[in-house]
Amino acid sequence: MAFLSTRTAEHTRASGWKTVSAALLFALAGAAPALAQGTSTEPAPIPIPSAQPEGVNVHILYVKEKRQKELPLSLLDQPNPDDGIAGAKLGIADNNTTGRFLNQTFHMDVLEGDVDELIKGAEEKVASGDSFVIADMEPASLLKFADALKDKPALIFNAGNADDSVREENCRANVLHTAPTRSMLADALAQYLVWKKWPNWLLVVGPSPNDQLLADAYKRAAKKFGAKIVEERHFKIDTGNRRADGGYEQIQQQIPQFMQGAKDHDVVVVADDDEVFADYFPFRTWIPRPIAGSAGLVPSSWHPALELWGGTQFQNRFKKLSGRIIRPIDYDAWVATRAIGEAATRKQTSDFKTLRDYIRSPEFQVAAFKGVATNFRAWNGQLREPLLVSTPKHLVSVSPQVGFLHQFSVLDTLGLDKPESKCKAYTQ
Amino acid sequence: MPRFSQALSVTVAALLTSSYATSASAYTAYITNEKDNTVSVIDTDKMEVIKTAKVGQRPRGIVMSNDGKWIIICTSDDDDVKIYDAKTLEYVKSLPSGPDPELLTLHPDGKRLYVANEDDNLVTVVDIETSRVITEIPVGVEPEGMGMSPDGKVLVNTSETTNMAHFIDTANHKTFDNVLVDSRPRVAIFNAAQTQLWVSAEIGGTVTVINPADRKIVGKVNFEIPGVEKEAIQPVGIRITKDGKTAFVALGPANRVAVIDTATLKVLKYILVGQRVWQMYFTPDEKLLLTTNGASNDVTVIDVANQKAIKSIKVGRYPWGVVVSPN
To answer: Please, what sign has the CA dihedral across residues A168, A170, A173, A175?
Structure first.
């Protein structure tokens, strides 16, 4: 009888159809259509109830330090007043869409000012129930801010700076970091250049202390992944105001001269942390070589043209909400907001300690349009994530590159790894 | 007696024909090639592409009308759903769908088409005969997977950023329950008996099995493949055999399809297929399972009974969806 459950008669061949009685064949012909309609398995009914889970409200504070900074070179890179804030707002909107099904609401306050104003405002907001703070500040301000909130029920997410020291020797237990570090970004680019077999770099370093930190990250990355800095040049030309009528005539002369007579190299890596001169380098070098680092091929946490892993929907939602294209800091702030939302969704609570401990635990993960789950490194609170390597208009690659290995997570090939970490606050 | 002998001779003819075939009777499979804006048509008997037809932009999710006359495709970059004649591949008409449709499912009534709109956090319900939007159902962020209960009474939609399976009553098109699953749920599918709902979580790396009756999580399927890093195990497509005993789960960049015992939720076997395997479809006789392998531009044919990959068929670039004709 076993063959009765099959769709056609052809399966009976092996069992010797000639011996099958005519009566059975007749029965088969009658049974087959009924079986094909699937009446043998009646689906179990699904009861439909109505229930509402208990309400949860989560309050998030966004603090943005007012800074006096030289304007970046390109018109395309000029700051928007809502850089970062718009990303967090999208995170709030995404959290609330999810929250609708769980009776959870998410709310965000925004404060802007100098660090002392932000501390004062944050203390009040935390006292009235804002338990998560997304911070866009300079490293020194971030430390001051974190120390002021040290014993308060508040967890800070650093979305505003790439400084390694605030994750390392100056790390604070109440701060997580969603912005990638200079060392992570340098490693992401270095892996790609090494994969590309362009191991000989000419390093051009700008005059600011941050440029020096970025150059240090590139030197470290070169050593780590087997590239070689064949020469280091210090770019000290005062570029002046970012624009003047004309301007290109002199730059066209200055950059080739600056690059003349360099040792043979595959690629020029430019360390320009403040984005004030690197964009002068592409197509103006003495010999034709690609530019990477702060211009040309650039590492970042996000790119406005990324469409992988559902990124298109994310880009579209952001554009609809903010009316502009996204910046990496928007993404970093969005990840922070989503991490908070994800924790509240999973734990079904707004209890600060429960959420904080969960976010910092190894079980926590948040999907962030990177193809793999992201979470926080247990030894210094840094977001563990793949990074992008792109030209201004398009993605070139995603690091970690294929072939680089790690004993725990290949994502930890980017940036300072656990054995190298100088952070003590997390292990105490 | 003369009647019976006639029946016998028909059977003999059928058997002779089938003995030429290495597998089952010939069905037609349709593969959407996301990058090429084409559909590859495969003869499942010959196991080769017999036709490639241009369709709309960025074709992804694909289903067939219940009578097998139409193929219905989400043409995501055209922001609509397009219908083509299954035989001639000629364009029939477009359906409104809302922006960026990705996956769709047809109600057993053959009329109501449910489309996930990733951009709008909506499930759009369209009447495929009149081409009118019946209603829109608000769901979580980035709706994707669409699982219709076999009795047609409940639709389950997954939302990728909200990480939920939304249970929708198809009588009033309202959500009546939401179940949290692991990160980035992609596909939801009921077994035939409606006693299990399976939901894959691409980033979570798991498959959650839910009891549809009380929406409680019955268990989770975890995957572990020696030599494959954990992050590469990204479950997407799911198919369950009609007897409900065996499930197949496509594991994305792990380049494998897991075979799972639905009673114990244990993985029995991993079948090596092409690269970044996402969607799958059985032939109606359930002898073959076809997989789309996006990164290697091919379709793997799995022999279901022996749980073995038996053939790889080159198709267009970034094959995404697959459907097999009912006849």
So the answer is: negative
